[in-house]
Amino acid sequence: MNKGNNAVPEPERRAFLKGAGLSVAALLVGGLSFERYVVPKDRGIPVMDNYPLAILEDPQGNPITVADVEQYAVSSTATSANILVFNYPLQDEPTFLIAIKGVKITTPEDSIVPTSGFAPVSPSSKAPMTGVIYDPFNDISIIALSGICQHLGCVPPFLDYHPGKSIPFEAQLVGYKTNGTGVFEWPTNGLIYCKCHGSQYNPVWGGSNLYNNGAAPSPANHSLPQIMLATNNSPDSSLDDPSTFTGSYIFAYGINSKNAVIRTHLQYPGGQTYGPQVKKENLTGGTAIPTSTQSIPSTIYTYKDTPSNIETGAPSSFDVNQVNGSVVLYKTVVVSNSGPWKGNFHRLP
Amino acid sequence: MEKAEYEKNEYDLTKIMEEEKDLPEGTYKIGFRSVTTKGYRIDEWTGAWVATALIYQIVTGIIIFFYYSQVDPYRATEYIIDDVPFGHIILTSHLYMAYAMIGLVYFHMMRQWLVGSYRGKWRWLQWILGVVLFLLTILTAILGYMLANTAIAMAALHIGLLFMQRSVLGRILPGAFINWLEGILVGNYTTTATFSHLLALHVAVFSTLMLAIFAVHFMLFERSGLANDDKTEKGKMIPWYPTNLLYAVFSAIIIIGVIIIFAAAFPQKLTLGYGSLAYGTFPVPDWYITPVYKLMDVAGYGLSTGGVPLIIGILIFILIIPFIDRYHKKGVLERPWITAFGVYLVLGLAVMTIWGYSQPGLTQTRLLTEYLWWSLTLISFLPVYAMRFAKKDGDANAN
To answer: TM spans, by residue (chain B) (predicted)?
Structure first.
């Protein structure tokens, strides 16, 4: 070892090693305290206290009506569907708006998940699911489901609703057949299918994950969260006539925690939260949707599966975001892949 | 007459390239080594090609950086393509050179693997730094791919964040660690914060780290010399200047030329922007991501639970291969199981790339996956041991 004049004498080398060790230890301790400076202060802090009451608008800024959405209603024979998406509860959190003709969407029960075969059980005698707009005059259900896949967070157009007669190519590869032809037939009203890894959700079952009931296992761990919708006129024909109902505006007022574990937000560690923490968890780390200049409706109506079907009341009686004790009306824009609402949910027009 | 205080100026610039002889004692020398004619074999230059790609990426990256904006990244990318002079060809060649760089890194790595040049005085360290550079290359590429804010890029970002949260990283390590990592990656997750962070990581942090580690990697190479070169052949050494320099420059020009030709012939098409809706469209991830992805998928036990530890395991295995390889002789057939495993990795990578690229979103059955891995094992191990047997037999007969 110690050859030549430049060799470091043994004691000095030991001192050097000590110094180096101390430096590394100091760096480690310093690095730990450094964490708080790197992580932004607004990480993990909710941008609002509760789910916003938001009016659905078109890209031109006009409130959309039930009749507007019903134009996009798909029946079981549809070969394609327009994608309708709005941001809720925060910006950049896409939510599907799906109108299905000839179906009354009711709260799914364990008993209606089939153990064999694949046909959805018709729950015609039940009341519509909480937060679903059901038009009894035209027999159309309008449901809003989170557009963030519960597997790994893929969003539209990767996650996409394919109605009865349009099986996506990827779903055909895993074994889905057109309905009426085999065990793993594409359901009558189609599925929401994620092309990233094949997660399957049934909109007619309120966005329920198929788990192992499909042609291939659905890798998602949860069902799609359902965003609850309300109208400013009643679907009860004894209160309002049909054209008044179909002309009413649509409001999103929260997420149905009953049927789905909510984890729409992706950025906070330990992202899967259950129960009352869901709200705060869900409203962190993003940007609030803008507030609306429309007047707040005096009464909103929504279906409630128990006990008396329709729940009605002033917006303040619903569990929505309030600032200084009064309800604030937010707005969210519905965009589509074609037609007059063509747009981009990330970069609004 | 007073004695001059200054050395005389030397205006003959060619003398810069002369060897410095009488350096004072204690001087640290970083040399450019001369080699024999063996050093000019094409497989000895795989590292130079990767270095070429790195330098080209830095130069074109700086040009693109002038026009990029993290406020509206997709529009900024469209602007670079449509409005910046030569923007389309520069952006496309930046993309293609990234592809080339990743391919060349694999080539460079597998060449050293098969030749076994990761053992020797400083070579083990050079190998480890090389693996770190490989990781940095892939990560920088993925960051760059996210910067355009396409739908597929944001899917990658979301999936990456979820992997951090749900895999061993997020589940075993304390929550604050992942929060810290995510804070570095996306800030508070608004669009501008996200892209400012991704941009800073891509253009400053990762690329600087890569350049710095590359400098050490290269310096270690110049210290050790070529793995299979005979260093004692007096009179047969070819001076570094100008032969080696010119060889490096010419091979660099050829690679850059090929990439520019490809960039001009096949200009990059920007895929669907994040947030835009299209019925039935399905952009596919870049080819260098799909094998990792497919591998994680076919590992079983889910992408994050089984896949992330598998990838970490493979990386650790590659990292410590200099210490696992206990064979005494050099040569491909003298180290049979290392060679066979190298072939296995190459084949696996190729199969995973093609499979992942053609069917990115499909989960496979366990049985198919088992068939695949066992046949790959057979294909890679059997010929190597058979050839080794044949060679021994031939040598025995010759004697």
So the answer is: 48-68, 88-107, 127-148, 198-220, 245-265, 301-324, 336-359, 371-390
Q: What are phi and psi of B39, to 5 degrees?
A: -70, -15
Q: Which residues of B touch A287 (CB under 8 A)?
A: 190
Per residue of chain B (399 residues), give pLDDT as tens. 566 688 888 898 888 888 888 889 888 888 888 888 888 888 889 999 999 999 999 999 999 999 999 988 999 999 999 999 999 999 999 999 999 999 999 999 999 999 888 988 889 999 999 999 999 999 999 999 999 999 999 988 988 888 887 777 777 777 677 778 888 888 877 788 899 999 999 999 999 999 999 999 999 998 888 877 666 677 788 888 888 999 999 999 999 999 999 999 999 999 999 988 887 767 788 888 888 878 777 766 666 677 788 888 899 999 999 999 989 888 888 899 999 999 999 998 998 888 888 776 666 666 777 788 888 899 999 999 999 999 999 989 987
Q: What is the ipTM of this complex?
A: 0.81
Name which of B38, B15, B48 is nearest B246 in CA terms: B48
CA-based radius of gyration for chain B = 25
Domain that holds residue A115: 53-341
CA distance B136 to chain A (A): 21
User: Do residues A17 and A164 both lie within one domain?
Assistant: no
Q: What's the total number of domains in chain A?
A: 2
CB contact burial A113-137 (16+ within 10 A = b; e otherwise): beeeebebeebeeebbbbbbbbbee
Give one DSSP letter per residue of A264-296, joined into a string: ---SSSS----GGGHHHHHTBSS-BPPBP-SPP
Kindly determine whether residue B282 and residue A345, on different chains, have CB atoms separated by under 8 Å: no
* Domain co-membership, A178 together with A324: yes
* A283 contact B CB<8A: no
Same-domain pairing of A58 and A35? no
**A119 and A35 in a common domain:** no
Nearest CB neighbour to B361, from listed A38, A42, A170:
A170
Check CB contact of B195 with chain A, cutoff 8 Å: no
Q: What is the 3-state secondary structure (H, E, C) of chain B?
A: CCCCCCCCCCCCHHHHHCCCCCCCCCCCCCCCCCECHHHHCHHHHHHHHHHHHHHHHHHHHHHHHHHCCCCCHHHHHHHHHHCCCCHHHHHHHHHHHHHHHHHHHHHHHHHHHHHCCCCCCCHHHHHHHHHHHHHHHHHHHHHHHHCCCEHHHHHHHHHHHHHHHHCHHHHHCCHHHHHHHHHHHHCCCCHHHHHHHHHHHHHHHHHHHHHHHHHHHHHHHHHHCCCCCCCCCCCCCECHHHHHHHHHHHHHHHHHHHHHHHHHHCCCCCCCECCECCCCCCCCCCCCCHHHHHHHHHCCCHHHHHHHHHHHHHHHHHHCHHHHCCCCCCCCCCCHHHHHHHHHHHHHHHHHHHHHHHCCCCCCCHHHHHHHHHHHHHHHHHHHHHHHHHHHHHHHHHC
Please tell me if residue B71 touches chain A, with a CB cutoff of 8 Å. Answer: no
User: Is residue A287 one of the residues assigned to a domain?
Assistant: yes
How many other C-beta atoms can be found within 10 angstroms of the C-beta atom of residue A19?
10
Whether residue A35 sits in one domain with residue A60: no
B197's CB contacts (< 8 A; 6+ apart) are B184, B185, B186, B187
A40, A174, A269: residue with CB nearest B170: A269
